[in-house]
OmpA family protein (Prauserella alba), 221 residues
Amino acid sequence: MAGKNGRFWLIPLAFAVSGLLAFGATWATADRIEHDLRDEAQTALRDAGMRAPAVTIDGRDATVSNVPRGHGERAGTVVGGVEGVRAVDVQEAQTGPAAVRTQRAIDGALRRTPIGFVPYGDELTAGGRSAVAHVADILRSAPTTLRFEVAGHVAPVPNLDDDEARTLSRERADAVAADLAEAGIPRDRLTTVGHGDTRPVAGGDGPEADRANRRVEIHVR
C-alpha cells in the first residue's frame, strides 16, 4: 500500500506537466499568429504604396500608428482587409511645426548630398557617408518626440527580381539606420522599410538615373 500511495503524487504531477505543455503550445501558437498578421499587414501597407506605418497586433486586433495625416481611413481599410485581422485602430501622426521644420531640413540636406550606395550593394559611397553624418546632426537637434522612417530604394535594373530588390533596399535602409544610431540617434526612434524599385525619382536607364534611384530617404513620423 505504501508503494501505491507513494505513486499517487505522480497523477497530479502528470496533469500539471500536461497543463504547462498545453499552455506553452497555445502561447507559442498565439505569438506566431500575431507575428504573421503583423508581417502581412505591413506588407499590405507597402503594397498599397503607404510608407509602412508601425503595426502592432494584440490577439487579432491591429493598431496602426504613425499614419500620415489624411491617410487613416485608407490604412484602416488596407489592414482590415488582411485575413485574420478582427479590428483595426488607426492613429494618425500629428504634424506640428517642429516636424515640418525638421523634414524640410532633411529634404534640403539630401537634395544637396543624397545618401548614395555602390551598385548592387548596401555599402555607402563617400558622399553617402557624408550625407548620413549631416542628417545625423539634424536629427540630434530635433525634438525627442519625433520618430523617423528610413526608406531604402534601388534602381530599376533587370538583374534584380521584386523580392531581391525589396531585400536590398531594406538592407540599405538598415545600414543607414545603424550609422545614425552609431552617431547618437536612439534606435527606437528609427524604423526601416525597403521599397525596392517601385519609387524611382529619375527616369531612364543610364548611370545618372541609376545613381539617383539608388538611395535612402528619411521621413519624419
User: Anything to note?
Assistant: Residues 63 and 89 are 5 Å apart (CA to CA).
